[in-house]
Design a protein that fits this description.
With 553 residues, the chain is an alpha+beta fold. The chain is 33% helix and 15% strand. The chain has a 7-stranded antiparallel beta sheet, with no helix packed on it. A 6-stranded antiparallel beta sheet has the order 12-13-18-17-16-15. A 4-stranded antiparallel beta sheet has the order 19-20-21-22, with no helix packed on it. The radius of gyration is 25 Å and the shape is elongated.
Length: 553
């Protein structure tokens, strides 16, 4: 250190910068310094998140039971004693099914912590133990008063040995990163949520040591601050693949078992996330942009999100008179936790997921250096904006603009979609979505299932699904999709062409059949909405400052 200090701190700066870059490359998931929530409050002028709950829910469902059975039927010998896996889920499944209880409790008593909490990487090779702690916390609270299922000895072993976080050690930075990198949301919620709930358990059962008093040791204030920030400045790991499932797990524990103040704050985040899901999904299909991780950029399933597993599981408990579609099996671990949690969806979110009641256009902001979500929908369809990558270190995955409608497809190839320029998602700005309209700097993919019913040299009109007519203009490096009203296809083609007959003008301007002139720039900078004006009125193109839930709904 003396050597570095003797050179006017220049070499020290180089060293720290090099370490920071190495750590950032290693984790590719953390945020340098305090920038994660550095943006403005985005909660002003936002749509009201539904919270009302009057629906009656079933006490069990066949899908929920199937997740329990998956793990109850897995031999206890499969429980791993080192490294994250399905071990805690297997134990939980056996307890939920009241199967092999003596052996399960004995196995719990034999377990030891295999690692430490927090993001894993070369700087924290034994990290990720909080994935286990979060499930064990659920086990502790779920069976607290059922000694015939979870024996007092096994319960105390979970509490005193396997749950390693306790006291007032709230941590906001990733382990062994010299305080340079903020911890990710999912790890903070699981690690600090488990710490908080262990403290809460100890206090409730007679331990008066002030270190476990969440109201005075700072834990309650820290968690409420994190939760309220997530609904004020936006979630950093929005729609994350695969981490949204673990974010939900951490939130479900807090919503189920914390103090009323923390429960309310956690429920608000859950309701915000699930309302966002409802706005951006169609028939349980969804294809939004997301942050983390790049290796999931090639996913083409419309139903593969872990968030969808939670949604489907909750819906399987809904009143059987509701039009809930047939629910398919999803990710067993997440399904188990969704089924076992006391949280259920707000009424309006359920209705919006199952049936789009009316047309809407919404823009979801996610703050500085993020990608927006943009959706245009009515009961027949959903146009889903693909978003934008803002640079390598933003870990943002842009996706094609996608049209989902009344078909059974679960794969991108069976949808109308467009993206560009080129095929590298890191070069895309796929924010060109407006009311019943989308454009991008790439061609339109037309699914083989669509029926061509009218065309000329500029436009093709397809029957995409029942009562849904779609106009397409497509070139190698430019494309447009326009949702049309129900009318004679040949008449629509003539009217559309009369308004939009010049291919060069189409590159930046489109006239809708209801007398709106839209302008756009499909090669806009990555911090700018592709759409420019509507009938000459400038649109707010700075999506860094968009409301969390903006638009008309």
């Amino acid at each position: 250190m003396k050597y570095f200090m003797s050179h006017n701190n220049t070499s020290l700066t180089v060293l720290i910068t090099g370490v920071a870059l190495a750590l950032c490359t290693s984790t590719s998931s953390m945020t340098l310094g305090s920038q994660k929530y550095a943006g403005p409050d985005l909660s002003a002028n936002t749509l009201e998140v539904p919270h009302e709950r009057t629906m009656k829910w079933k006490s069990e469902s066949s899908i929920g039971n199937s997740y329990f059975e998956d793990f109850a039927n897995t031999p206890l010998s499969k429980v791993q004693r080192s490294g994250k896996g399905d071990g805690t889920h297997i134990l939980f499944g056996h307890l939920l099914a009241h199967k092999d209880l003596a052996e399960t409790n004995a196995l719990i008593l034999s377990l030891k912590p295999w690692g430490v909490s927090g993001t894993s990487g070369w700087q924290n090779k034994k990290g990720d133990y909080d994935f286990e702690e979060a499930v064990l916390t659920t086990v502790l609270y779920r069976f607290a008063n059922e000694p015939d299922v979870l024996t007092p000895n096994a319960r105390d072993h979970i509490l005193n040995v396997l749950l390693i976080e306790q006291g007032d050690g709230y941590r906001t930075t990733a382990p062994n990163t010299f305080g340079l990198f903020e911890e990710t949301e999912n790890h903070m919620l699981m690690t600090e949520g488990s710490r908080y709930l262990k403290n809460r358990w100890l206090r409730a059962h007679g331990n008066t040591d002030p270190i476990y008093n969440n109201e005075t040791n700072g834990m309650e204030d820290h968690l409420i601050s994190l939760l309220t920030t997530m609904t004020a400045k936006g979630m950093h790991e929005f729609n994350s693949q695969p981490y949204v499932g673990y974010t939900l797990l951490g939130l479900l524990n807090l919503e189920g078992y914390a103090s009323e103040k923390v429960r309310t704050a956690a429920r608000n985040v859950l309701d915000y996330m699930n309302f966002s899901y409802a706005l951006g999904s169609y028939n349980l299909r969804r294809f939004p942009p997301f942050r983390r991780r790049y290796e999931y950029a090639n996913m083409t399933s419309l139903t593969g999100s872990y968030h969808t597993t939670f949604i489907k599981t909750w819906l399987s408990f809904a009143d059987p008179t509701l039009p809930v579609p047939e629910i398919q099996h999803g990710s067993s671990g997440h399904g188990e936790m969704a089924a076992a949690s006391p949280y259920r969806l707000p009424d309006a979110v359920v209705k919006l997921i199952l049936d789009k009641p009316k047309a809407y256009f919404v823009k979801l902001g996610h703050g500085l250096e993020a990608s927006p979500e943009i959706y245009s929908a009515d009961p027949r369809f959903l146009l889903s904006g693909g978003g934008v990558n803002r640079g390598e270190m933003t870990v943002l995955v842009a996706r094609p603009i996608t049209l989902m409608c009344q078909t059974t497809t679960e794969h991108l190839s069976s949808t109308f979609h467009l993206a560009g320029p080129g095929s590298d998602f890191k070069q895309w700005n796929n924010t060109g979505v407006y009311k019943n309209f989308a454009c991008a700097a790439g061609p339109v993919h037309v699914p083989s299932e669509a029926t061509l019913i009218a065309e000329n040299n500029l436009w093709k009109i397809y029957l995409a699904a029942k009562d849904l007519l779609v106009a397409v203009h497509s070139e190698p490096n430019f494309g447009i999709i326009s949702i049309l009203p129900q009318a004679d296809a040949k008449t629509l083609l003539a009217d559309l062409t009369a308004l939009n007959s010049d291919e060069s003008i189409l590159r930046h301007q489109f006239k809708t059949l209801d007398q709106h002139t839209l302008t756009y720039d499909t090669l806009s900078p990555k911090n700018t909405w592709v759409m420019s004006t509507d009938n000459g009125q400038a649109l707010d193109r700075n999506f860094d400052t968009w409301a969390l839930l903006g638009g008309n709904y």
